[in-house]
Amino acid sequence: MYYSKQFILSFSFLLSLPIIFFIFIAPHVFPSPPTESLIPISDEISDQTLFSSAAASSTSLSHLSSGYPNPKLKIAFLFLTNSDLHFSPIWEKFFSNHPKSLYNVYVHADPFVNITRPQKDSVFANAFISNAKRTARASPTLISATRRLLATAFLDDPANTYFAVLSQYCVPLHSFGYVYASLLESPTFDKTDPDPNPGLRGVRVVYRTFIELISDEPRLWKRYNARGRYAMLPEVPFEKFRVGSQFFVMTRRHALLTIKDRVLWRKFKLPCYRSDACYPEEHYFPTLLNMKDPEGCTGYTLTQVNWTGTVKGHPYTYRPKEVVPELIKRLRRSSHSGSYLFARKFTPDCLKPLLAIADSVIFRD
Question: Where are the domains of the chain?
Answer without folding.
Answer: 39-301
